[in-house]
Amino acid sequence: MIKELRELTGAGIMDVKEALNEAGDDRDAALDILRKKGMAKLAKKADRVAKEGIVESYIHAGGRIGALVELNCETDFVARTADFQNLAKELALHIAAANPLYVSRDDVPEEVIAKEMEIYKEQSAGSGKSEDVMQKMMEGKLEKYFEESCLLEQPFVKDSEKKISDLISESTAKMGENVQVRRFARFMLGN
Amino acid sequence: MIKELRELTGAGIMDVKEALNEAGDDRDAALDILRKKGMAKLAKKADRVAKEGIVESYIHAGGRIGALVELNCETDFVARTADFQNLAKELALHIAAANPLYVSRDDVPEEVIAKEMEIYKEQSAGSGKSEDVMQKMMEGKLEKYFEESCLLEQPFVKDSEKKISDLISESTAKMGENVQVRRFARFMLGN
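Predict the joint structure of the above. Result:
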């Protein structure tokens, strides 16, 4: 179990033993503890520059859809690992299939958000609901829009229980480096 | 020779015989005649919609550079031919290597051209040359800029005697369909 947890999280033996202790030898609970620790460590790493990495592509449906993605990490060493390259492949495949428009919600332009909100307002006009409820509904719809259009918030096409941001976080924790999707492009024939 | 010319140009037997006649049985001259005829035919085709095709990618230098290109033609039949797919592959490779910024000079924004011209003006200021000569020099430099930054005007990386637009024209003539580069993306790690 120690070996498995180390492989899954990239944590040291002492950390794994401690986590298993804390979790009363429950594998999944220990995994959670290790991941949270990993995340906390990684928050510190967020400022470190990720400019190594890989550019990966995926061609879907006999050339009708293609995706190109740049995945960054901090060192060439990590960039060469099979885990990292596999993540890049999965992301390119996901982008081809799920058609995200932006990497993260921070990349959605102000005017797009304003336009979305306007549409929601029109949709709910005359519903007789209070301002307060209307505002909450609109915010809920905007959240839904982010989930549908932002790569990091989309459910992974191969495992809808996970968001893409979860995939990235797991890799980040495992590799011990800041891992970031820098940009992507997606072409669909004639669209 | 007739067979070879037909294969090279996609022209009919009668057209090839006529061209050889006109060229006094000179292979290269006949090829020129057939190509010009093909081009003339294709000018008529330029209005026809090219929305079939293929999306192709090329990953260069172990994942440090990636290119994605959409190449359009008119029918799914042509899109499936090895010639067409090979052209898409060559284009993706070329884009990865030659770093074009635009598909054609028509895609270069006005403000980019204005800025280029301003730079050329500053460079030639105080040279003592006449307005007329200066203007010609600036236009020459702008032509050079188009050649360097526009995919269709770049010399093909595998054969610098040909421009990319020549490659496309040859395919267009051979396939008898309007062939167009619709768009491309190119990512270079960290750039």
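The radius of gyration of chain B is 20 Å.
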